[in-house]
Amino acid sequence: MNDLRARVFISCGQSKGSDEPKIAEEISKRLTALGFDPYVAVAQQSLRGLKESIFEQLSRSEYFLFVDFKRERLNGTPDHRGSLFSHQELALASFLEIDVLGFQESGIKQKDGILGSIQLNELPFSERNTLPDLVIENVKQRMKEGRWDSRWRNELFLDRGPEDLRDPVVRNTGKTGRFFFVGVCNRHRSKTALNCCAYLEKVSALDTGSDIPAQIVEFKWEGYLLPNAHVHAKTVRRFDAFWVLHEDPTQVLFNSPFCDASPFLPNIGGADSQYRLTYSVLSDNFPPARRSFVLKIARSLDAITFEPADERSDMKNLV
To answer: Are 125 and 29 members of one domain?
Structure first.
């Protein structure tokens, strides 16, 4: 997992004509140097933009950096309001239970809005030009204390390598089969993924461009009989993607002992045919994981290939 970078959502004012965008850019650059993967939030003007940018990035982030810049003065008071967008993003981060590090410019009304409902203990600052130094100083302190770590992600990741196959004797048949697995990596630094279930969501024939009918059913985990399995932090657990008989490698079979109706499993095969198989894994306490793989069937058992569709394999970084 050495190449993983924890994602930091930077909620920071971006007022046009101010020094705020430059400050956000400097903070982002310094977080990158510390090994993090920062994202600077920019105000979105549409619901689609919010959903596809802000919401998606927040749901995928391991840490949240809250910078509350001073806005106009509140009527009849010496206090100023804070950044509306930053407070909205902070509310979402609190709902998602993302670890927050907060900073607030001097002069803003204390404990206003969402800050009055959560225990953030935001750090004050008065000189904007020193804010990047203050942020990085506190991030480094949290890293030293073990509270922040740049080398993990709150996600499950699907992948496989050439070694992810076995050749056992198939139970009750006396025949030898080759089983191809997909690995489910828990990239969290400490949290176990609970009750993970694996599914084949979609099958497409690449030769014809058509989809193969299939219904959702739980697949089997390697060496385990129940459909739901736990995946411990920083470990990989594999499920049976499909298998073939040594004596007939052109016929693809699926291992789902919990299914008692054949229409739930796709009927695919044929020498020199190619398919795109999309798998997903659902868990009680992690975001859904999903990835497609390309299967190329051959007459020879050892000529069969099964690789990630995006040609990007991170198996060397899984553990």
So the answer is: yes
